[in-house]
Write a structure and sequence with these properties.
By secondary structure, the chain is of the alpha/beta class. The protein has a domain of 249 residues: NAD(P)-binding Rossmann-like Domain (Rossmann fold, 3-Layer(aba) Sandwich), CATH 3.40.50. The chain is built from eleven helices and 15 strands. This is 3-beta hydroxysteroid dehydrogenase/isomerase domain-containing protein.
Length: 367
């Protein structure tokens, strides 16, 4: 197995990046790793060969500066604003413009061989329709079908990165790219989805359920997602300097891969499992079912109240998008990643939840 270093991780202080870096250090302890992020004070690895650089992907100067310092062979492109909290302008500046800035700087530095892009399965889902056993062949959605600005931006970035594969042609020594599409990611240091579920559990509110609760969902533990990223990186580096394989079904570069834990859970069972691990189990008789239409109505009212009181600057705590998100079926077909990358989830959902909730309990403010 060849070295993947030096490595550059965009969004290097995010929680997914933290797990990717941990996996690199496990595989190659001496690997030189550089990170670019707007906030370099969180999720740090206290290791001398991991270097953190403050910078904004929306700034081509920042990206080029860090790229020239790192001179990476491999780039893990994970940077993205938190999809539920960021202002709309941040999506295009960071996700789309940032992707172009990374690609431009990578071509200038002449050292990069592999770029692994972290996208989302949301690019093929409109957040209104159930997604069942979805494969990578499903089309990327565009407006008006796709109304989520975050997903439109992710799709545009994915297009740009895939188009840059082999420098847009068949160049055997050109930059090789691929895209990883996870479903709902959770793990230690996840201040987004799992952090919010943990807060709900600690408040004793996990008894509330939107919809009938019979919607299976694919989750992915961040440690398993990191495994998939490294498998993709090694596969791209192995393919570098070689023409595309005759068997197109074995190709890694220019491809997208769905990554899951391969064990769908009912969405609301997942939330209640978090609650149980915090010491607040919910008995079936205590579950309060709120019909989906009621939730959507409450979300609409909350959105307008938040808009009125904040002048449109702060999102509502409850939104129609969030209600839809928690009541849809959303499962992925992960056969391509298993066949081409050799990916297998090593940590089950239950074990991943136990690890994650334990971390939140140990790091809860006030403890």
């Amino acid at each position: 197995m060849s070295s993947i270093g030096p490595v550059l991780v965009t969004g290097g202080n995010g929680f997914i990046a933290y797990h990717i870096i941990a996996k690199i250090l496990e595989e190659e302890p001496g690997c030189s790793i550089h990170c670019i992020d707007v906030n370099v004070d969180r999720n740090r690895h206290d290791t001398p060969n991991v270097h953190y650089h403050q910078g904004d992907l929306a700034s081509p100067e920042d990206v080029e500066r860090v790229m020239q310092i790192a001179r990476p062979v491999t780039i893990f492109h994970t940077a993205s604003p938190e999809f539920s909290d960021a202002p709309v302008t941040a999506y295009r500046r960071v996700i789309v413009d940032g992707a172009h800035h990374v690609l431009d700087a990578a071509l200038k530095v002449h050292t990069v061989r592999a770029l692994i892009n972290t996208s989302t399965c949301g690019v093929i889902n409109d957040n209104h329709t159930n997604l069942i056993d979805a494969t990578e062949e499903m089309p990327i959605l565009r407006p008006p079908q796709q109304q989520r600005v975050y997903c439109v931006a992710k799709a545009d970035a994915e297009d740009a990165i895939q188009a840059a594969n082999r420098n847009g042609g068949q160049d055997v020594c050109g930059l090789l790219t691929c895209t990883i599409r996870p479903d709902l990611v959770f793990g230690e240091r996840d201040a987004g989805t799992l952090g919010k579920m943990f807060a709900v559990a600690r408040q004793g509110k996990s008894r509330f359920q939107m919809g009938d609760g019979q919607n299976p969902y694919d989750f992915i533990y961040a440690g398993n997602l990191a495994d998939a990223h490294l498998l993709a990186a090694y596969a791209l580096l192995k393919a570098w300097s070689k023409p595309p394989p005759a068997d197109a079904s074995a190709r890694v570069d220019g491809e997208s891969f769905h990554i899951t834990n391969e064990e769908p859970w009912l969405f609301w069972d997942f939330q209640r499992a978090v609650s149980a691990l915090t010491g607040n189990p919910t008995e079936p008789r205590d579950i309060v079912v709120i019909p989906k239409w009621v939730g959507l109505t409450l979300g609409f009212v909350n959105e307008w109240v938040a808009w009125l009181f904040s002048g449109g600057t702060k999102p509502a705590n409850m939104t129609r998008e969030g209600i839809r998100f928690s009541t849809l079926v959303r499962t992925l077909n992960g056969e391509k990643a298993k066949r081409v990358l050799g990916y297998r989830p090593r940590v089950g959902v239950q074990e991943g939840l136990e690890r994650s909730v334990r971390w939140f309990m140990e790091n809860e403010k006030g403890n």
